Automatic annotation (TrEMBL):
The keyword Hydrolase applies. It is an enzyme of class 3 (hydrolase). It catalyses: Thiol-dependent hydrolysis of ester, thioester, amide, peptide and isopeptide bonds formed by the C-terminal Gly of ubiquitin (a 76-residue protein attached to proteins as an intracellular targeting signal). Keywords: Hydrolase, Nucleotide-binding, Protease, Thiol protease, Ubl conjugation pathway. InterPro entries: G_AIG1, P-loop_NTPase, Papain-like_cys_pep_sf, Peptidase_C19, Peptidase_C19_UCH, USP, USP_CS. One of its GO terms (biological process) is proteolysis. The keyword Hydrolase applies. Belongs to the peptidase C19 family. Residues 14-290 form the USP domain. GO terms for molecular function: cysteine-type deubiquitinase activity; GTP binding. One of its GO terms (cellular component) is nucleus. This is Ubiquitin carboxyl-terminal hydrolase. It comes from Culter alburnus.
Length: 492
């Protein structure tokens, strides 16, 4: 995606007109505009011919086009959202949620994570797990008059709690209501983690909403912890004033030039992160999952690269490790003559020559070199256009030579992905149109990734992300030698 490109200095950001009291909407829209994945999804949206003017994605597209060039107006958006009175202040978080629901998952997926809500019976230990998608996490503020500690509050959110006896749940195993423990865990971390501070709470004595104006130092990053990847702050929606009135603005760090800006309706000014220290204004915070590199992945792993000559194995190895560790030159000759193992950070890559060009005894020798400890993941590298019957044969021969524990964790890396554009076909169509390829992809549990080194895109983080998902911590630390069946069976 284009946001990984180098910083641009010449970018200029534009404001949004306030229609009356629509600062809550402006604050949200600027955050969405400054989230590259969301912006790209909106820009690439193709509105169906019969779609009406009330289509929100279409309106966002028009707005973003305008906003890239000059200050913009939000009339189309308020209409499409069914906002009747533009003079009535609304809640920014509520509108963040409304907009994401309305645009559909293609555009909103960058904000989506999965949460498990777990209830456990205290008697028999029976657990019920319910998985839900979330687009923000609501953090309570119960610190009295002290300064608010957001990280502590985030920890509290995931703490286990025992229910009061009145709330105990019926356990199917025990066939009665039993002591119940509940908690939540994040099962899939979102690319953008949106945290919403519960500043507004209903006061039953006064019978009205009260605002908690406690101060906090907004953490600029959430460090890596247990299973949680590191997150870096890039947007803060501020609210100043009381419940029904007040004013919203947004502080955003540009992904294009790294500079912090304050977006306040029409006005856009440069600011710095110091405005986020000891402030009583922050209401919603957006954190971006930091790009993965071999040093910060959740747990160590070993990756074996295989495939035909000049498929791009060494190239893929270098992409994963983020440097030029394996030799790969242009020309027709194979440059990798024997296997090489390289470790950077927590990642070990085993690069191989074309194993299928070797005679059996050399093959066994090469594989033995790599088998103890064996790989956690095997990547079958192949240029997209060159997938042939012969390659399918080689794939299956390879699978047969190894034990199934090893081959359960294979993924295909298609190199020269650019050629898909020439075929004018999306990858899933390309695969389903080639029956043989389809079979191989299925053998890899439908895991594949398309790359191309010529498109200037940085694939390191996304490859590491996919690879990390394939291996659990337990698997990564249990060192299993790769079983070579050919050592046992003479027939291979
Ligand atoms: N255009 C293009 N060239 C690639 C791609 N991947 C690898 N290559 C080139 O293909 C050649 C062979 O790559 P190499 O990694 O040495 O292949 P190996 O023999 O499998 O290790 C090199 O010149 C690479 O630069 C790709 O995605 N697109
Ligand atoms: Mg090579
Ligand atoms: Zn029970």
């Amino acid at each position: 995606m284009s946001f990984i490109k180098g910083f641009r200095n010449e970018v200029q950001y534009n404001g949004l007109k306030n229609q009356g009291a629509t600062c809550y909407l402006n604050a949200v829209l600027q955050c969405l505009f400054m989230t590259p994945e969301f912006r790209e999804a909106v820009e690439s949206y193709e509105a169906p011919g019969d779609c009406g003017e009330e289509n929100l994605l279409l309106q966002l597209q028009k707005l973003f086009t305008q906003l890239s060039e000059k200050a913009a107006t939000t009339g189309g958006i308020t209409k499409s959202l069914g906002i009747r009175s533009v003079f009535e202040q609304q809640d920014a978080v509520e509108y963040y949620r409304k907009i994401l629901k309305a645009v559909g998952t293609h555009a909103s997926k960058v904000f989506e994570g999965k949460m498990n809500n777990i209830t456990k019976c205290g008697t028999c230990g029976n657990k019920i797990i319910e998985t839900n998608t979330f687009i923000s996490i609501l953090l309570s503020i119960d610190n009295g008059n002290d300064k608010y500690d957001m990280e502590k509050s985030l920890k509290t959110f995931f703490e286990h709690s025992k229910l009061e006896e009145d709330d105990w749940m019926y356990c199917e195993g025990c066939e009665r209501k039993t002591e119940t423990e509940t908690w939540s865990e994040i099962y899939e971390y979102p690319t953008v983690l949106a945290l919403h501070l519960k500043r507004f709470d209903f006061d039953y004595i006064q019978m009205r909403y009260e605002k908690n104006e406690c101060r906090l130092d907004v953490p600029l990053s959430l460090p890596e912890e247990d299973n949680r990847p590191r997150y870096d702050l890039y947007a803060v929606i501020n609210h100043k004033g009381g419940y029904s009135g007040g004013h919203y603005d947004t502080i955003i760090r540009s992904y294009e030039n790294g500079i912090w800006y304050r977006f306040d309706d029409y006005s856009v000014t440069q600011t710095s992160e110091s405005s986020l220290e000891n402030s009583s204004l922050p209401y919603m915070l957006m954190y971006r999952k930091s790009a993965l590199n071999p040093g910060n992945i959740p747990h160590p792993m070993r990756i074996l690269l295989i495939g035909p000559s000049r498929a791009g194995k060494s190239t893929v190895g270098n992409i994963i490790l983020g440097g030029n560790y394996f030799l790969c030159k242009s020309g027709s000759e194979t440059v990798t003559k024997s296997s090489m193992v390289k470790t950077v950070g927590k990642v070990t890559v085993m690069d191989t020559p074309n194993l299928f060009s070797l005679n059996k005894s050399s093959w066994v020798k090469e594989m033995q070199k790599l088998s103890d400890p064996g790989p956690n993941v095997i990547l079958w590298v192949t240029p997209i256009s060159k997938f042939s019957e012969q390659q399918q044969g080689l794939f299956h021969t390879f699978k047969k030579r190894l034990d199934s524990r090893t081959t359960k964790r294979m993924m295909i890396i298609f190199t020269n992905g650019r050629q898909l554009k020439e075929f004018v076909q999306p990858i899933d169509r390309f695969i389903s149109d080639h029956r043989k390829l389809c079979k191989v992809v299925r053998c890899c549990q439908n895991r594949y990734h398309v790359i191309d080194i010529t498109d200037g895109h940085n694939y390191t983080s996304e490859l590491l992300e996919k690879l990390s998902e394939m291996v659990t911590l337990k698997e990564a630390t249990a060192i299993t030698p790769m079983q070579l069946k050919c050592l046992r069976k003479r027939s291979l």
